[in-house]
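Re: folding output
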Amino acid sequence: MATTAGDILVETLIDWGVDTIFGIPGDGINGVIESLRTRQDRIRFVQVRHEEAAAFMATGYAKWTGRLGVCLATSGPGGIHLLNGLYDAKLDGAPVLAITGLQFHDLLSTFTQQDVELDKLFMDVAVYNTRIMGAAHVENVVELACRTALACRGVAHVTIPVDIQSEPVGKDLRAKRNLPGHVADLFALGAHVPGEDQVARAAAILNASRKPCILAGRGALGARSELLAVAERLGAPVVTPLLGKGAIPDDSPYATGGIGLLGTRPSQDAMENCDALLIVGSSFPYIEYYPKPGQARGIQIELDPKRVGLRYPVEAALVGDAARSLQMLLPRLEHHTDRSFLETAQAGMKEWRALMEERGTRTDVPMKPQVVAHELNKLLRDDAILATDSGTITTWVARHVTMRGSMQFSCSGNLATMACGLPYAIAAATAYPQRQVVAFVGDGGLTMLIGELATCAKYGLDVKVIVIKNNVLGQIKWEQMVFLGNPEYVCELQPIDFVTVARGMGVNGWRIEDPARCGEILREALMTPGPGVIEAVVDPHEPPMPPRIDVKQAAHFAEALARGTPNRGKIALTVAADKVRELV
């Protein structure tokens, strides 16, 4: 029975199907913590080591499950720490509820301890954001917060003064209009069906095309069978931006893999040469990788109307759910007998896969980072969940891990933040304890939130963390050189013995240095129950080669070497060797 404002808050969450909250207790949120303690048989609290990780976990939980992710933090600094993870949710469209504490209601704005008005701070990140004013206010706003986060696929934030959290039900004066029980915990989805005129227009454009291409993003993840049917009907290659990885299996005859710096050459060729582009659930942000405006006729399937035409001009807009929109479109599409555009992409993919095989089976020492991703791919189950950070490690996963079966993959897409890989994996293991869960991270990203290894140990989570150790901020290093022509500067990292650190936190540890033993050690680690860290020591001079190097990038790279990049001799030799292998 709910006796306090905190009780009402927790009971409302339970009514909305929330079964997990990630966070850290503190004096500014202790009233809610007590309500969670007395209901721990119905809702679990996962204690983390940093609030930023709690927000990442809530975001990951929402991405993996499609349900509401929830995080909790105390007043002042605790709430502030949530922000990076919440922006990750905002930019990737993940439904997340953040609950924070405030200091005593009658001491706010008086320079009291931890006096941060978090509702004002969260104004930009949240689609719903409010301060609870009393026990009678709680149910109304928490209901609306849950509903809005799910409906708008964004962040909702509710903050509550610490004294109000323990306020007895009935003590707070209820307004005459605030009738008890006037809100509902029902969330109903709309039809999400596009208009018939737009469907007909889209079909006409695609039927008239000779070289159609499909760009399938995160909004297409639940529309695999429909995507494949449309691709087959049109004879269209399917390009998958990073958040769309897994929209169709990577070994499908229609798949050309990713796009952008970490993409494939066949995907880039398809985008550069298509005459019609069907964008399904994607707002891939790198405009320079789209067809030039006017080259291809654009059609977009998008749930959010304000994202229509955001990256590329379109002539038909199907505003609705991806699967339902494709189902409506398919019967109107003619079977394309000319498969030459698709066949060109397939021939390109055959060459690309051979190149990835060659790069993934190198025997050089120091070990190439691609080797680790290549060997991991062989050992992943068909239901594995794989999380990664932002950096060169994202490239290795994007190119060397083949999505198949019911595998899931995610990372920080539009925010592209470091440090999310381990928290995402913790969320996955919390939601799906029977599935194989792997975090593929860099040494820079892991050290930002390395304390969460203790979270894995505390809850016995079967998370395997593969850390690519090159002692450098690799992506930043190559950006300095290739994009700006500047010598590498302040990118080197102090080496860390991750095996020793892991064991100090109660986590198993392995080290890989010899590429000949990479698969064997990974297999042993993955088969060992419980959390584990696999430190893979790799060549710091191996670049994440783009699908095609343009003249400007080559010039900048040469300029950076000439201006005094450290280890420029080794870097030049490594890049030259990679390019030779690519050409022969």
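--- second protein (sequence, then structure) ---
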Amino acid sequence: MPARLPAVPQPATIAPALGARHDTTALLRGATASSYADTVREVADDVAARLSAVTQPFSGAAPSELRALVDAVDLDGPASGTRQALREAGDLYAQHAIWFHEPTYAAHLNCPVALPAVGAETMLAAINTSVDTYDQSTVATFMERRLIEWTAGRIGFAVDGPGTQGGADGVFTSGGTQSNFQALFLAREQARTAGVALESMRILATGVSHFSIAKSALLLGLPDGAVVAVGTDAEGRLSPDSLAQALVDVERAGDTVIAVVATAGTTDRGCIDPLGPVADLCDAVGVWLHLDAAYGCGLLVSPTRRHLLDGIERARSVTVDFHKAFFQPVSSSALVVRERADLAPVAWHADYLNPRANAEPNQVDKSLQTTRRFDALKLWVTLRALGADGIGAMVDAVCDLAAAVHHDLATDRDFRVVGTTDLSTVLFRYEPDGLDPEHANALVPQVRRVLFDSGRALVAKTVVDGRPCLKLTLLNPDATLADIRGVLELVRSAAHGLLAGEALTGIDEPPCRAVHPRLARAEGDAR
């Protein structure tokens, strides 16, 4: 028999030492379910009380005050417990947040949110699903895909169902900027596959297209000047004649148009480009047409204005922002493509996540994100609760309100309306007879600042055709014409006050100085 190897002594097995005992009540689990319910209830009660008490969209606190409040919190200090921490957050954050549900908030593309969606937020936050792979999401994957199919159907794309080669597809994203970026990435990849060099790629878009178009070109490695400006008409809509000329000019320069970007709801004016004529030109030369409908997508469910999107079904890709026009909490956006195969360049496989051999329906295969919230749940619940027609009626309400405000301003001697809108935007200036345009220009940012600092009303400012303008973005279907008239009166009062202040500063000696005992007399005044 062969000699046996000598036994080698083995070290005794010692279990690793456990760290300090943690707080076993800190995490949401079965044992803390009742604490979870109490916590959510307390937060909901606090927010509800604040909602009931709010009388203006902002507290009016100065940036220096808010910074001081934030800096006063010791983030390395001792633990205060869940209840106290949430109370502190309410007094810090909720007390000084911008309340988009207030009818005097009319600044940006922020909407009040649907109650069913807020309920869904509670559910998805607690369960914390990540909709990247099927083994993390299960039914959520199918629910998101069903909503993409529903949206595609509303657009007018053919929907053949999951698992087929043809038909529309898409994915939820964090917002319109990401949706636009992904669409242009897909267009770039199609052009690269066809042998087009990066340095010769061009994107055609108007100067009023969303800034994310130019930013996407930069991030995609396209050269400076890759976004070629297409002319617009007097209302800021893309001019088909200008587009036709731009297509010819790019080709003559030896470059290649990889995408044309049209807009259904420009940020400043809320105007919709002529989708049919633009699609005709794109089809004629075989160019990818991307439609940024982040603002105007609500018309997909409008009972009276859906026709304004006629031609949307001819786009190759469409951006929709449910957190703008469908009254969803941020974030809830999607990119929808007409052909499922167009999403293929996004796919990236990793053995630990989504190996190629995996037959499960993984959403990460068509998303730029990996970990991703189940934001589709909010829209799902809202559709089931209110119905598409119910959402569409709210879209119509804000568009009708904007039309009524336009009519009001057109008959007001102090204000000048700037342009028109297809949606719910109102551009105007305080410019009564006798006030020169340059003076009116200077008042725009001053009026906006006075209103913001007071917290009583929030309006936006922008520049259109070189003219500064005040802007109302009306996305609150519960706001009334009387509410917006109140905002306009605040604008008028602020402008009057600013002009009166300018008049007083131009007087060497205020008229009351000689009679008011508390005002110091001017030096050398013998009276």
